[in-house]
Amino acid sequence: FVLHLSAFDRENYYINKYHFISRKNEIASVPIDTKFYNDLANIFISEGGIAVWYDWIRTYQSLIKELRTNPEIAEYWFDTMIKSFNDKGLAVILCMPTTGFILSSAKHQNIISLRTYNDYLLSHKGQLKLLRKVKGWRWKIIPRNTYIKQNFMVGLLAKSLGLMPFFDVFITNPRHPEGFAEPNAKYEALMRILSGGIVAIGDKVDHINRSVLKLLLTPDGDLAKPDEPATIWERTLNDDLLLVHTYSKIGKYYWKYVGIINTGQEEQSYNFDLEKVFKEKIYFVYDYFRKYVINGPVITGDLKPCKVDYYIIPPTINNITPIGFIDNFITMPSYIIQSLRKEKNNIVINVRIISLKSRKIALFPENTRVKSIYGGIILRQNVQNSIRVITFKPTSNLINIKFSH
Question: What's the average model confidence in pLDDT over 303-329?
């Protein structure tokens, strides 16, 4: 289990057993006691915990003057807590941390991830409208474009410190009832998988859009993730149009994944030469949503606010360009590919399989063919926009496919 830990009320179960800093005019209190966190860690271990999700860190600091005005107290509290969890083998995920706590996490190897921005519902008019009816709260909506840019900007900071960014839960269903509809579900899913971190969904039971989940999950049920969190191309840091990119590496070959995101308030056109981004020769680019191959490095398009275009730059090996498993956003997750090698004029891919469900792999050009397959059978082949799409069904947990051109 990953166990949730949040702020402590001024009057709490532990207040008379351990040392807390508490002020009468404050509604929260903070434990400054190594024994408290050691004991708490033991409780978490006994309950099957493997990690602690520490929530409301920024809010906690805003509620307690000592954590705002005395950096030594803030640092002592944070270090004491994290070290106690580390001594018990518990990983930590930070939620809503300030930049100070994000920087301090560089000292602690057991801090593995952080949520990069505010609650997802604060960018969602339908959810806030419902929440006001239930709770009478009057939180201001965060514009979706602000939310997106902040996630990637803080994600860049997290990545620089070796942490996996997490963009908060999202709704997968554009027709979700009760004010929770998410018309941009496909784009929200894409941005989260590009983040490289945790992906969580918040749909009501029986209202999950499984077609969106399939873009994120392999047939084995694992997240098809890139090797690292997405990086923002530095030339777009101050622009409304963000270019973000990440990759999968298999042997010496790279599959690069590129998102173009409009964080502005008006529709915008873009024109990017990807050779300037990656400083290398690029022959082909796969337009994921339009499903065709672009000859050369230049990508162009028009994007409405908060929309995303998505491109994949696959390697060309022996005149064959393996785009990968196109049912997923990340078409070649490195952890499922055991090896990829040249063999005369062919390429050979070995894939680790758990589920024997069928799957599709796409290659360019269209006259690419399967020369041999071991551990599986070909179900069908078809051509889409000059791309060869091969559907196969594994018959063992390791499949070997040789492609020729």
Answer: 97
Q: Is 326:285 a contact under the CB 8 Å cutoff?
A: no
At 161, give phi and psi (nearest 5°).
-105, 10
Query: Is this prediction's pTM over 0.90?
Result: yes
Q: Give the DSSP letter of residue 338.
A: E
C-alpha–C-alpha distance, residues 262 and 379, integer Å:
40
Amino acid, res. 170: F
The predicted structure's pLDDT at residue 405: 85
Distance between CA atoms of 99 and 92, rounded to whole angstroms? 16
Structure token pair of residue 267: 């529709």
Interatomic CA distance for residues 111 and 53, integer angstroms: 10
66-103: b (≥16 Cβ within 10 Å) or e:
bbeeeeebbeebbebbbbbbbebebbbbbbbbbebbbe
Q: In what order do the strands lie in the sheet with 8-9?
A: 8-9, 28-31, 20-22
Mean pLDDT of 129-141: 78
Q: Does position 138 have pLDDT exceeding 80, yes or no?
A: no
Provide the β-strand partners of residue 243: 260
Q: Which residue, 196, 313, 205, is CA-closest to 254?
A: 313
Token pair recorded at residue 371: 């020369």
CA distance 159 to 231: 8
pLDDT digits (tens, 9 = 90+) for 26-75: 999 999 999 999 999 999 999 999 999 999 899 899 999 999 999 899 99
For residues 191 and 149, the answer to whether their CB atoms sit within 8 Å is no
Is omega for the bond preceding 365 within 30 degrees of 0, making it cis? Answer: yes
Could you give the CA distance from residue 26 to residue 64 in angstroms, rounded to a whole number? Answer: 7
The DSSP symbol for 87 reads H
Q: How far is CA 121 from CA 73, 94, 165, 321, in A?
A: 32, 19, 18, 41
Whole-number Cα distances in Å, 191 to 38, 273, 291, 358, 386: 37, 22, 19, 26, 28
Report the amino acid identity of residue 347. Answer: I
Question: What pLDDT digit, counting tens, does each position of 162-178 carry?
Answer: 999 999 999 999 999 88
Q: For residues 224 and 189, give the distance between their C-alpha atoms in angstroms, rounded to a whole number.
A: 12
R_g of the chain, CA atoms, integer Å: 24
Within 10 A of 127 (CB to CB), how many other CB atoms are there?
A: 22
pLDDT at position 236 over 90: yes
